[in-house]
Design brief:
alpha+beta; paralog of FGE (formylglycine-generating enzyme); about 15% strand; four-stranded mixed beta sheet; 11 strands
């Protein structure tokens, strides 16, 4: 390309010189010389310029990965307001963790917490606190609670009640809230990617993070210390329903990616749903991050509440 351009430049300069000479000769009344003939003669003596054309510069083709536009990071928190009552969801970035009776549990791990197995989860949001009575009442307009108080967690509700509440909440917000899976619950309780390997949610000292062990009643949410992700009361206060059906042997065959729990029992009489976290009247054993409990989906008492989750849209 450079050789072609040099030849073109040389030719142009020659033509300009020739034109200047001819013009000067004409002014001096010299015999007329046709510069077309001179140019033709010059071209015969020079190498032909082959395939001369202008080229448009194009940038190098980028790889597919370089062409992808980086997505904006997800907000660490999302706050929603329903009829004047606000609640916050905490981002739990996906990752892989060991689920079950890990070494942090010492000798406390139960047989239904084994085998310890690796689980990989996608990113999701989970409630910063347990669902409060204030939120429940503006969504479903009922007040079944034993320990009353707008900022106390919902109690005395069954798994089926939770589904009714979530359905109405989704109608009001246009979102798809749900109960967390058992794996999502444990991963969030352990602190997700920020986990420090505690026995309880946020500490090895249960008194720092939980209301438990023969307390007279539930307490206002978020009055103890949060865990590594900024989530409150995942140990103690009220036990929390999960979406999964319960099977004591499920860990032996659980999928490694986003497990959804075992298939519900064919006979509703034998069906039960997972409950996690321990409650205000629980012993420390029940407040461990790996402890598994379960009840019939129609069972309710003063120790049962819920926390909601939200998938990434």
């Amino acid at each position: 390309m450079k050789n072609i351009f040099d030849k073109f430049l040389t030719l142009t300069l020659c033509i300009l010189v020739i034109v200047s000479i001819i013009t000067a000769l004409r002014k001096n009344n010299r015999p007329e010389i046709k510069y077309e003939d001179i140019v033709s003669s010059y071209l015969k003596e020079t190498e032909p310029i082959e395939d001369f054309r202008f080229y448009e510069h194009t940038p190098d083709v980028q790889t597919e990965q370089e062409e992808q536009i980086k997505e904006e990071p997800l907000p660490k928190e999302k706050t929603f307001t329903v009829k004047g009552v606000s609640f916050t969801m905490i981002l739990v970035e996906g990752g892989t963790f060991q689920m079950g009776a890990t070494s942090a549990q010492g000798s406390n791990g139960s047989c239904n917490e084994r085998p310890v197995h690796n689980v990989t989860l996608s990113t999701y949001y989970i409630g910063k606190t347990e669902v409060t009575q204030a939120l429940w009442k503006v969504v479903i307009d009922s007040d079944p609670f034993i320990h009353k108080g707008n900022n106390r967690p919902v109690d005395n509700i069954c798994w089926n009640d939770c589904q009714s509440f979530i359905s109405m909440l989704n109608d009001l917000t246009g979102k798809v809230f749900r109960l967390p899976t058992e794996a999502e619950w444990e991963y969030a309780a352990r602190g997700g990617q920020k986990s420090k390997g505690y026995k309880y949610s946020g500490s090895n000292t249960l008194e720092d993070v939980a209301w438990y062990n023969d307390e007279d009643c539930t307490h206002k949410v978020a009055t103890k210390r949060p865990n590594e992700l900024g989530i409150y009361d995942m140990s103690g206060n009220v036990s929390e329903w999960c979406n999964d059906s319960y099977d004591k042997d499920y860990y032996a065959s659980s999928p490694s990616n986003d497990p959804q729990g075992p298939t519900p029992h064919k006979d509703p009489m034998f069906e039960s749903k997972v409950v996690r976290g321990g409650a205000y009247r629980s012993f420390a054993y029940d407040c461990r991050v790996s402890c598994r409990d379960h009840w019939s989906p129609s069972f309710f008492n003063s120790r049962l509440g819920l926390r909601i989750a939200l998938s990434i849209e």
